[in-house]
Amino acid sequence: MVVLDEIQRTPERFQALRGVIDDGRRRGPGNGRFLTSGSASAAFLGQSSEGLAGRISYPELSPLDILKCGLSNQDRLWVRAGFPASLLSQTDADSFLWREEIIRTYPGGEVPQPGPRIPPAALRRFWTILARWQGQFFNASRIAGALSAHGRTVGRYLDLLADLMLLLRLKAHAANAG
């Protein structure tokens, strides 16, 4: 097996991989010869699906959850989140510092270049507001007011974070018919 990490940084490799995969299929090695990893951004998914349509699958690696960690770790999991490095840190302070670094460094390294730009300070404020309002119905205009931004801007921020798989949108359990 060949592992290609951060493949989204060299999109020309998708075309080369396509030829190698097709040649291998004709000769019979079958599936599973390459493992690619990289950003979960919409840009990566778009690049790979265009070049490798029918030759690639996207398993979603979910964070650690209560089923994986056990009920005895539920409080720790709730505070530290489902990232292994955060959850397994020696202290709460170390875990907090790791999460702070993710928030500080993620926009520069993972947000696709042609995508909308979110200044790191705005992203931090947006994440903080979302964290405080979790479990509630999403109201873009209320969040926009808290951010001093437009509702459309908040919608774009939310779309980008969902595309980057940094948040998961849950649909309402029941529609408001009124």
Task: Give me a quick take on this structure.
The chain has 178 residues and is mainly alpha-helical. 53% of the residues lie in helices and 4% in strands. The N and C termini lie far apart (56 Å).
| Distance between the amino and carboxyl termini | 56 Å
Characterize the overall form: globular
Overall structural class, as computed from helix and strand content, comes to mainly alpha
| Largest sheet data | 2 strands, parallel
Listing every helix as H and every strand as E from the N terminus to the C terminus, the arrangement reads EHEHHHHHHHH
| Average pLDDT score | 77
CATH-assigned fold name of the largest domain: Arc Repressor Mutant, subunit A
Total helical segments: 9
Structure description:
This protein has helices at about 10-25, 40-50, 65-70, 75-80, 85, 90-110, 120-130, 140-145, 150-165, and strands at about 1-5, 35. The chain has about 180 residues and is mainly alpha-helical. The longest helix has 19 residues, at about 90-110. β1 (about 1-5), α1 (about 10-25) and β2 (about 35) form a beta-alpha-beta unit. The chain is globular. It has a two-stranded parallel sheet with strand order 1-2. The model has no long low-confidence stretch (mean pLDDT about 75). It folds into three domains: about 1-50, no CATH class; about 65-110, no CATH class; about 110-178, Arc Repressor Mutant, subunit A. α1 crosses α2 (about 40-50) and α8 (about 140-145) packs across α9 (about 150-165).
